[in-house]
DNA sequence: TCAATTGTTCAATAATCTTTGAACTAAGGG
DNA sequence: CCCTTAGTTCAAAGATTATTGAACAATTGA
């Protein structure tokens, strides 16, 4: 099973901006960015400190639909990654400046638990 | 008379993003960016092709309150400028990448009329 | 002073977006 | 198989946002 994602050239700037204008979603992206290059993708439950399961499902769908994240279905889990290359190609510098700016605000530092995957 | 503007360090990233997530406001910023360095500031009526007078008043207030634009009151007119230096200082690279991205979408090319001020 | 120009405010409506709980699906593990 | 885990879907409620027209205020030019 594979979820719908916009192609790179379908990624819309106003949509990306409004999606990242929500503090919960911005925090999710900041957390994903910290993790980049690291070994592990993150599954949804890693973000439970930011909202209820249902609410996260909603916000993570928004991020995926806007083309900000990629969601991989593995069993009953969904693994999330930032679509950095696609975003960098389409809107050079945007993600970096947003992530840097998001760090200015306090992004909760997920309790580091065991790495999975 | 002078209108309230946030100080540079009061400018909030999520607020800037959600304010620029609106297509009308993004178009206004793109138009202001084109005009930068030019001699003339723009008054509100220059944007009438993007919405009604009342509606523009609403959107322009949002841009000002978020710290994206500066509004100078001169007589009955309001002259708008991008707060580029403040934004560049607080969120380096953000404005440039957004303006560049906005140009990808079709930003209406204001009918060039007589320069005032 | 009168009238036009520029733009705001207000209140109402419409449209979107967010949050929630209950019920559900789909894998796994034992 | 049954039970747990991981996450979605749905519908309802709540909260914000956007759009509109009517009325208003302030400045400016004739």
From TrEMBL, chains A, B:
Cross-referenced Gene3D superfamilies: Winged helix-like DNA-binding domain superfamily/Winged helix DNA-binding domain
Assigned keywords, A-Z: DNA-binding, Transcription, Transcription regulation
Segments forming domain HTH arsR-type: 15-96
SUPFAM superfamilies noted in UniProt: Winged helix' DNA-binding domain (SSF46785)
A Pfam family per the record: HTH_20
SMART domains referenced in this protein's UniProt entry, alphabetically: HTH_ARSR
Protein name in UniProt: Helix-turn-helix domain-containing protein
């Amino acid at each position: 099973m594979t979820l719908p994602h916009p192609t790179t050239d379908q990624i819309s700037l106003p949509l990306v901006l409004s999606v990242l204008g929500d503090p919960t979603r911005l925090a999710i992206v900041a957390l994903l960015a910290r993790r980049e290059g690291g070994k592990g993708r993150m599954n949804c439950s890693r973000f439970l400190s930011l909202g209820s399961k249902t609410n996260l499902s909603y916000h993570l769908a928004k991020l995926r639909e806007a083309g900000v994240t990629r969601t991989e279905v593995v069993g009953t889990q969904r693994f999330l990654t930032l679509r950095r290359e696609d975003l960098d190609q389409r809107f050079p510098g945007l993600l970096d400046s947003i992530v840097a700016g998001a760090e200015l605000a306090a992004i909760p530092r997920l309790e580091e638990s065991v790495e999975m995957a």
